[in-house]
Amino acid sequence: MVGREAVRMTTVTAIMLISGAALTFAQGARVPEPPLLSTQKAFNLTLDETKKYAQTKNFEVVGHSYFKGDWVVATARERGMGCGFNTPRVSKGIGYFGGYNEPPTCFGVLIADVSNPADMKALNFIPCNPGTRCNYIRLNAKRQILVIGMDTNSANPIRPPEGQVAQPGLGFYDVSDPRNPRLLGFSPAFPNGATHGFEIDDRYAYACAQLAQTKPGDQELAIIDYHDPRHPTQVSTVHIPGQQVGEAYGPRDLTNLDGSRQRIWCHEVNYHKDRLYVAWRDAGMVIVDV
Q1: Model confidence at 37: pLDDT above 80
Q2: Which InterPro entries is this protein grouped with (predicted)?
Q3: What φ, ψ does residue 78 adopt, rounded to 5°?
Q4: For the residues of 105-147, what is the DSSP string, one character each?
Q5: What is the distance, to the nearest Å, from the Cα of residue 69 to the centroid of all Cα atoms in its chain?
Q6: DSSP-H helix ranges across the chain
Q7: CA separation for the pair 18, 27 (Å, rounded)
Q8: Please, what is the end-to-end C-alpha distance for the chain in angstroms?
Q9: Which of 201, 145, 205 is CA-nearest to residue 173?
Q10: What would the pLDDT profile of 194-251 be if each residue is shown by its tens digit?
Q11: For residue 4, what is the DSSP state?
Q12: Residue 224's closest CA among 240, 241, 211?
């Protein structure tokens, strides 16, 4: 089922406590402007300074950390920066944070004790495969399995060995001991190719990825069985006609109204009640019964 809808995802990077009246999104409530930074250096705010400079209404900032450390790439450390994050997951006081690549700061997943938000502590860092980024993660809290999406990215300073290319895909990690995560298995995408958003349930991962049959630059939906996370197995794929080698796109999937080429990419996935809601860029919203 295809419709012309767009989905916007929002990531919150500070830990906050919601309180007071319910938020009314349409009212456009005015929030007092915080004071401007004067001599305070960026990337070096204390928790109290973060609260002072934050704009808040009906919630309180209770924790903040840049998570500076050896896991931050050298160019960012030289500028005093910490980790930039794209995807957070938290369970039982343990946080898992997928690093972001623009600007290049962290190419991996930071695991931290966030049980005391005012004093969060890094526990371990899982690096991405060489030449990839790890922006998207999902956590199966019941099975204590962390799933990390790895996507080819030239900004990662750790490069593949000479003569080899980046290996994107999904990594499955045992995080029953968050201080000592263990790689269980890996489901590869096309070498030097792409992955993007994904979702999981208790048995399957539903991932946007470039596969062997996918045209260069495109991404389709791969369904991966991780019942045995040591041997994850691709069991099915879903794609828009035209995305695979040897296929032609239909008239609606060729160009936009301004004449530019459409981007027919599986981009982000949401799972709800045995259905996948897949944002497929210019192809719109695709709903898959699983």
Answers
A1: no
A2: LVIVD
A3: -60, -25
A4: -B-EEEEEE-SSGGG-EEEEEEEPPTTEEEEEEEEETTTTEEE
A5: 21
A6: 47-53, 74-78
A7: 18
A8: 13
A9: 145
A10: 999 999 999 999 999 999 999 999 999 999 999 999 999 999 999 999 999 999 999 9
A11: -
A12: 211
DSSP three-state, residue 18:
strand
- Distance CA(29)–CA(287), nearest Å, equals 35
- State the pairing for strand pair 204-209/121-127: unpaired
Written as six digits, the tokens of 157 are 């300073």
Nearest to 129 by CA among 163, 173, 166: 166
pTM: 0.86
Q: If pLDDT is split at 50, 70 and 90, which confidence band does 35 have?
A: low
Does residue 188 sit in helix, strand or coil?
Answer: strand
Asked if 280 and 269 touch (Cβ cutoff 8 Å), the reply is no
The CATH code of domain 2-7+41-50+57-289 reads 2.120.10
Number of residues in the chain: 290
Nearest C-alpha neighbor of 254 from the set 268, 270, 236, 242:
242
Q: Which two tokens stand for residue 148?
A: 């990390």
Sequence letter at residue 146: L
Q: How far apart are CA 30 and CA 23, in angstroms?
A: 12
* Whole-number percent of the chain with pLDDT over 70: 86
Please write the tens of the pLDDT for every residue from 155-191.
999 999 999 999 999 999 999 999 999 999 999 999 9
* CA–CA distance, 68 with 99 (Å, rounded to integer): 12
Q: Where would I find the beta strands (DSSP E) of the chain? A: 2-3, 15-18, 59-63, 85-91, 94-99, 108-113, 121-127, 132-140, 145-152, 169-174, 182-188, 195-200, 204-209, 220-225, 233-238, 268-272, 275-279, 285-289
